[in-house]
Amino acid sequence: ARSAGAQVAGSLFQMRDKIDPATVIGRGKIEEVKIEAELHKAPLVIFDRNLSPTQLRNLETGTDCRVIDRTQLILDIFARHARSREGQLQVELAQLNYMLPRLAGSAKELSRQAGGIGTRGPGEQKIETDRRRIRDRVGKVTKSIEAIRKQRSQRRQTRQAVPLGTVALVGYTNAGKSTLFNALSRAGVLVSSKMFATLDPTVRAVRLPSNRRVLLSDTVGFIRDLPPGLIAAFRATLEEVQESALILLVTDISNPNHAEQDAEVEKILNGLGVADRPRVHVLNKIDQVTPEHAAALNGNRNSVRVSALTGAGLDELLARIDARMPEIGRAH
Prior knowledge:
This protein is an alpha/beta fold. 45% of the residues lie in helices and 12% in strands. It has a 6-stranded mixed β-sheet, sandwiched between helices. The protein has a two-stranded parallel ribbon with strand order 1-2. Strand 6, helix 10 and strand 7 form a beta-alpha-beta unit.
């Protein structure tokens, strides 16, 4: 929420045996949320789960507040950080696909006159007009993205004509991928502690200790329960991971939940069909843990401990990339 520019006034946590199908949290809890929001003068309530159109409508009615869900929040953060034309189109496509099924709940607001005998129709007509506009826009945006994907594919083929292997940085959002990318390539990519600061893939050449060059690619950060629509919209970006010869899985070891975060990244890598791709596990941010903690880290033989911020361990990482990369571009 802070990454989206919100001031968090408070939070409520609820344990339930099962989700209330109409309101998720039940009527009693809705009243509690309403009182808390009034107390803090909070105009917006954010749910850390995805809500159906009906649930969204019932919660807004019950709390007298604007309500958004996890997907809307992520889309808002993505929209703030999309710099390139491709990134903006991908975010817009995901937003349009999210909005389409939720228009049904807006008949009252969209209608120009009240329903009833002799006045039936305006609400439906307005909704249908909006739906048609959204579908038309979805078609246009999809075509534009496909054109960009073709251009990206052509650029990739041009790159592949020169025998340079690609190394893709992947990891949970805010694991320090962009800082590591800058440290290895001196690229000057935006670095931010906010989530999803990197949306547009950046590719730079890096020289390895053996004197051959590889292409390093920075990608969008992953997160648990990433909405399927977003994965589909960012297919062009994630293709950089699918086309890579080596994956650097970056972990923020200073985060107490780093094991769970890595498990979520593994799920997405499985979904992309690259789970068996050669990889190096980069244990990042060792400068933020105690020397004892850093020494006790039991990585596997493919892991390297680094601090992208201070530069510690980067020489070892480059040597490990050199050793793990397929025999591509050795002469270069």
